[in-house]
Amino acid sequence: xxxxxxxxxxxxQPGGSxxxxxxxxxxxxxxxxxxxxxxxxxxxxxxxxxxxxxxxTVYANSVKGRFTISRDNAKNTVFLQMNSLRPEDTAxxxxxxxxxxxxxxxxxxxxxxxxxxxxxxx
Length: 122
Known about the structure:
Elements: E1 3-7, E2 10-12, E3 18-25, E4 34-39, E5 46-51, E6 57-59, E7 67-72, E8 77-82, E9 91-98, E10 109-112, E11 116-120
Parallel strand pairs: 2-11
Antiparallel strand pairs: 1-3, 3-8, 4-5, 4-9, 5-6, 7-8, 9-10, 9-11
């Protein structure tokens, strides 16, 4: 019943920007923290950013100062604004919904989107 649909991925040159969106349905969106993850070929899945139901945020060190996670509760949508993109940002990016009643930095996620490809190259 829970569905998360990512969009906004694509190919950009180094230094470029992309904005990813994740549309959620099947849950009371305002009650859940949300996260963005990524997985590059040959590497383990990495949590890029997370945002609590109240708007508190946390970022991986590799993206601090470049990426911004935000949410629009009226639209049941979470965003990831990615600026100053680097080739090492190339990965499949996944949206995930956290477990209800759990702290947003707990690492507990119950539902995942299908992923969207981000490629940064010259």
